[in-house]
Amino acid sequence: MKDLKKLISEMTLEEKAGICSGADFWHTKAVERLQIPDMMMSDGPHGLRKQDLEGDHLGVNDSIKAVCFPAGCAMASSFDRELLHRVGETLGKECQAENVGVILGPAVNIKRSPLCGRNFEYYSEDPYAASEIATAHIEGVQSQNVGTSIKHFCLNNQETRRMSISAEVDERTMHEIYLSAFEGAVKNAKPWTVMCSYNRINGVFGSENQETLTDILRKRWGYEGFVVSDWSAVNDRVPGLKAGLDLEMPSSFGENDALIVEAVKKGELDEAVVDQAVERILNIVYRAQEGRKENAVFDRDADHELAREIAGETLVLLKNEDHILPLSKEQKLAVIGKYAKKPRFQGGGSSHINCHKVTAFLDCLEEGMDYVYAQGYDDDRDEINEQMITEAVEAAKDAAVAVIFAGLPDNFESEGYDRKHMRMPDCQNELIRRVTEVQKNVIVILHNGSPVEMPWISEVKGVIEAYLGGQAVGGAEYDVLFGRINPSGKLSETFPLKLSDNPSYLNFPGGQDTVEYKEGIFVGYRYYDFKEMDVLFPFGYGLSYTDFAYSNLKLDKETMKDSDTLTVSVDVTNTGKMAGKEVVEVYVRDLESSAVRPVRELKEFAKVALEPGETKTVTFALSKRAFAYYEPKVHDFYVEPGDFLVEIGRSSRDIVLSEKVTVTGTYLLADHYDENSLIGDAMRDERVSDIVKALMENGFMDFGGSEGGSGSEAISKDMMAAMFEYTPLRSGLSFSNGRLKRADLQEVLKKMNERIKK
C-alpha cells in the first residue's frame, strides 16, 4: 500500500478537492501527474449494471449484458447466510472481470410501509434480519477484493419526495429500528463504502448530517471506509464535507470542487478535513487496484444456472391445501398468465439489469407434457380483457390443475415513486376469481416486490410467493412446482390483510416537507403482534413439502449478567418423507419492562438441511443486544434486569418452545437519585433497594389505616404497594405524618447516591 499521507502532501489543493468528486457518472478522478488511478463504481446490488458509455442513474441507457440474481425481497426470504455469501462472491468475480472496484449495494433500509416503491430492493421489516443478510452479502463480494456500498444511510423508507422530505423520528426508534439494520453490517462486514441517503433526517440532509455520518458511523461504530453520496444527493458541498461526506457522485464538473478550494482559502474549511477525505477515498482506490485479478472471467451461462439454484431457495410456499403440491408431470395443466411466458423478475430503476438470457416457466416444460397455455391478462394496462379471460377459463375447465402466474407489473412498483395501494391489478384478481369458479385445483404463483392483498386466498389451494426471483425464476418455479426441490423460504415481512392495517398507514408518505414516524418502534410484526391483529401471513412464515419437529430446547444458564453470552440449543427433526431445509427462528421476549417493548423480537436464525428422519442440534449465542432496547436517557442500548423468554418459532405467530432466563444488569439506568425519583424504580435497583425498604418499614408512608380496620379495607397492602410504584420519594414528607423531615430525606438520598458511585 502506498504512503497516502506522503502522496497527499504532494497534491495541490485543487487536485485534492477534485478527488472529492467523480470524474463522470461512474468513475473517481485520476491524477495523471502523480499516477493516481481512477476507480469504477457500478450499480447493483443483485446484478452488475455496468454502463460502458453514457451513464445515467435510472438505467435509461443500456448497460452490459449481465446476470440478474433474485432481488433483495427474495434473497431475504432465504434466511440463508451461506447463500447470500455465494451470491456476493459471484458478483465480486463478475466485477473483477469487468474491472469494477465497487458495486453499489446492498440496500438495507427497513420496509416501513408495503407501499415503498423500492421495497423490492430492501430486505426486511426487521433490523436484525436485514443486518445479518447484508453482512453475508458484503463479506461475499469483498472476499473477491471488490468493495460494496451499503445504502441508503439512513431513513430512506419512501420514494415520494425522497430528495427533499425530512424523516422525523425519535432517538429510540432511529437507533433501535432504522440504524440497527446498518450497524451490524458496518461493524461486522466492514463495507468499503457507505452511501448516504437523499432525504433529510430530522431536518438535516443525509449528505451533511454530522450526527449520522460522523458521530454515529465513525465515532460510535468505528467505520473506516469512505462515505459516498447517493447520485446527486449533495445539497451543500462544504458543510457536507465537514459532516463526513467524502465523495460526491456523480461529477459536478468542477462546480463543487471550486467551492471546496474557495472555502479553504477563505479559512472557512480546514484543509485537514479535505486531506482526511482524500485519504479515505484513495485508500479504497488503491485497495481495488492492488486486488485486481487480471484473469477473472464473467461466465454468464454458469452464473445463470446459479441464479436458478439461488431462486429456488428463496421461493416461499404460502398455502398448500390438500397437499396439492408438488405436482405430477402426468397431470394435465392449464398454465395461465403472462408471467409464465414473460416473467416479471426484477424491479425498475438503478438496479435494472440488462439480462443476457431469461428462463420462463414455459421454457422448462418438457416435450410430451400435457398442458395448455392462456395469457389471461395484459400487464401494460389494468383493463379486463374478456376474450383473454374466457380463453383462460376454457383452458382451466379441462385441466387437472390450473397454475396462474400473477403479480405486480413494472409500472406498479419502481424506484422513483411509491405504490398507491396494496392491490394487484383488477384484471388479474378478476382472472383468478373466474378461474376458481370452474376449477377447484388452482395454484397462484406471485411475482411482486412487496406484499399484496389476496381477496381470492380462500378459493385457491396453493400459493407460492416467488417475489422478483431473477432471470432464472421460471426454472426455479418449475423445480418447486414439480418437487425437484423442496421450498424453504420464509417471509421476511408481514403480509397484512389490508393496507389500512399497516402501522404507518396514517403517516405515509407524509406532507410536502416532512414525514413523521409516529408508529415508533412498532414496525411490521412488532405492531401486528402487539395489537394481536389478524394478518394474511405473519413474519417468518413459510411452508415445506415435509414436516419438522422441535425438541430439547436448552439454555446453558438460568441466570446471567447482561455482559454474559447465553448459549441456546434446540433439536430439529425432519419427520416427513422428503429432504428439506428449515429456518429456525429465535425470538426474545421481555416478560416485564418499564419501557414499552414489542411482544417478541427476532434475535437469531439459522437454516438447517435435513434428510427424512434426521435430527440436528442447532446452537445459537445470544449476547447483550438480544435482551436490550435503546434507552434515550443513556443514548445507548440498555438491558433492564428481569426475566426473559427465549422462544423458538416457525414464525412470529407460531412459537413452539420457550425457556426462561433471568438477566441481571451490570449497568443500571439510574445514575442519580433525587426527591422526584420514584419509589418503584429505587426498589428495583439492587444497589439501594435495602435503604428504601428500611425507610418504608420505619413508617415512611402512613395513610393512617390500622391493620384490620376500615382503613385497611379501603387501602390494602397490595393497593398501597401499587400506589408506591409511581410515588416520588418526596411524598414521604406529607404521608409520614411528620416523621420524615427534609433533612432526613436528604441524608437518605446522599446515602443512595454514594452507593451508586461505588
TrEMBL record:
GO MF, one annotated term: hydrolase activity
Species this chain originates from: Suilimivivens aceti
Name this protein carries in UniProt: Glycoside hydrolase family 3 C-terminal domain-containing protein
Start and end residues of each Fibronectin type III-like domain: 582-652
Protein family according to the UniProt entry: Belongs to the glycosyl hydrolase 3 family.
Coiled coil spans: none
SUPFAM superfamilies assigned to the protein according to its UniProt record, in alphabetical order: (Trans)glycosidases, Beta-D-glucan exohydrolase, C-terminal domain
Alphabetical keyword list: Carbohydrate metabolism, Glycosidase, Hydrolase
Top-level lineage group: Bacteria
